[in-house]
Design a protein that fits this description.
By secondary structure, the protein is an alpha/beta fold. The protein is built from 13 helices and 15 strands.
Amino acid sequence: MHKKLWIPGPTEVEDDVLKAQAKPLFGHRSNDFTLLYDSVLTQLRKFFKTEQHVLVHTASGTIFMDIAARNLVRPGKKALACINGSFSSRMYDTLVDSGIETDRLDVEWGKAIKPELIKEKLDESDYDIVTICYNETSTGVKADLEAVGSLLKNYPETLLVVDAVSSMGGDLLLPDVWGTDLVFASTQKCFALPPGLSVVIVSQAAYDRTRDVPNKGTYINLEKLLDYYGKKKQTPSTPNISLLFAFDYKLKQMLVEGAENIYKRHKAMADYTHEWALKHGFGLFAEDGYKSVTVTTVENKLEKDVGDLNKKLAEKGFVIANGYGKLKGLTFRIGHMGDHTLEGLKELLAAIEEIWEL
């Protein structure tokens, strides 16, 4: 029996989207590919209402952590990593592993990184980039990205790098208005596609910065990726053409529904899940005012056995996620993203109620 994925990714992929991959291949240096790839990027720019540079790379979204580290920090310059969970910590680790001097801005897991905390660090030291998770998947905390972006506009030499892996395509994202410089995601979450592609939106300031950074490598050389599309509307290396077929198909659906309506659908699922958790005596791990609309991290105040729950949910055709890392057992997570609906969510929560006799 297939278990419907109510985890924070990968999420459910509809049959018509899966079938969209099953087309005959063509060469990635052909005009057919040029038309396909340009169609995908054009639709992404339209969906996000952006005039910034957009790319799709054949890789997990994590690759853009390496790309940010190796392309946007100039020799002798520093980075600031905002850390409030496991995935924002991963960005810090990537910077350090790339040999970049990196300061940490830590807050308690479950809390958001506030703009005033970032301002304190920016006034103390110069940074080439500030990194932040728009939606920290481990804790269900959503950053006030608009406010952070507004702050960074006062520091033109400091670029804003955003991990939007579990929110891009589900929550609202306005790169041009909010002033992000490099914001990235993967296709297996809110885009409701199989894993294997990553998406990035790059400001002109970030594009210009790449020219000042040496030793950028090959597959993670952002300057080459951008230049190659600019010249040929293709990718420097062989891409996953089959997934691009599906992405092109899926984006047409997303443009019909519209970014605002997709956000409202996700917000309705989040609100319902939050109310359900509190009604049954659980808690919400994310602080008030900063709760994700794509992932709810439920505080397991009733000390229920989440592992046993998933075994029994599997018999009903569902799966949710345990707490991540040090939060395992202390929390559980419900990923209401992608093509999920409020009606489907109610079926899942009713199954949990039955199993746990809530």
